[in-house]
Design goal:
Number of helices: 14
Organism: Salipiger mangrovisoli
Subcellular location: Cell membrane
Mean pLDDT: 81
CATH architecture: Orthogonal Bundle
Low-confidence stretches: none
Distance between the termini: 31 Å
Helix content: over 70%
Main location: membrane
Structural class: mainly alpha
Shape: globular
Number of domains: 1
Keywords: Cell membrane, Membrane, Transmembrane, Transmembrane helix, Transport
Order of helices and strands: HHHHHHHHHHHHHH
Largest sheet: none
CATH class: Mainly Alpha
Number of strands: 0
Pfam family, one: FecCD
Length: 329
Amino acid sequence: MRRADLGVALALAALAAVLLGLGLTAGSTPVGLVDLLGGGLDEAQRYAVLELRLPRGLTGFLAGAAVAVSGAMLQSLTRNPIADPGLLGLAQGALLAILLGVVLLPALPTGWLPLIGSAGGLCVALFLARLTGRGRAGDALAILLLGLSVETVLSAITAIVLLYAPPDLSFAVSAWLAGSLAQAGWPAFGGLALWVLPALPLLFAAGPMLRLLDLGEDHAHALGLSLRGARLMVLVAVVVLTSAAVTVTGPLVFLGVMAPHVAAALLPSSGRARLVLSGLAGGAFVLAADALSRALGSEIGLPLGLCLTVLGVPLFIAILRLRAVRRPS
């Protein structure tokens, strides 16, 4: 990573810290910023901050970073700027597997849900990898088109399962599908970290490989990269990160597309630097959306996915417009 990459990364980390601090003050239990910084909290405020809002914010940041990094990796793999886990059906595969696990095995411990989600997403990934052959040119486009088809089918199956599920379960799952951090606590954060943090060495090892993929499949193959191995490695990493995040927060729609582009607008980069900046941007987006959610609603708040869209899409449009204006004719 260059010095400029480190500078932008530190700026994004500082922004995330500020947003986390603001999130600690938002909610039905009033907490002043002065009391928070000075430690003058009563018992109710201390419980709200340390047991509810802090783990919720940390969980949201980690989930947002996981989804954003997944989107950045898929965009390098497919060389398509709108690729993300939802578009390729990976997130939908994890969602459907988790949903079936909850419906068919209601007594199943929640600790098994990330594993079930990973199995569902991995099945979709292996299906895509199997159908796209052995490293021919154009496989990236084939993955994208097949992923769209798979995502459509899995979304229809999910809707059918919700339609025939018990009403109380259907209502609870529908709230989860809208994106939510209402149930996030220290156990949820620990479970998410247990899946995400071991993937960090894999992500850093994938940096040089992603830099080659950004050059195109032909160039990457000419430079000695095994396209089949690289494709499988990226898909497995994306599945693990996406499934872990989906289990806790539900789908974070459009974040995998938006965060890498926002990071690129701040500083164009590739490889490891792009993953780091995308992850920090994704985590900051979720923290901002969660703070807005609880500031406008109750302690449970508005759906996280809705607030994420309200915050992120206008910024995303503005960035794309600025890039179009600055591009030389």
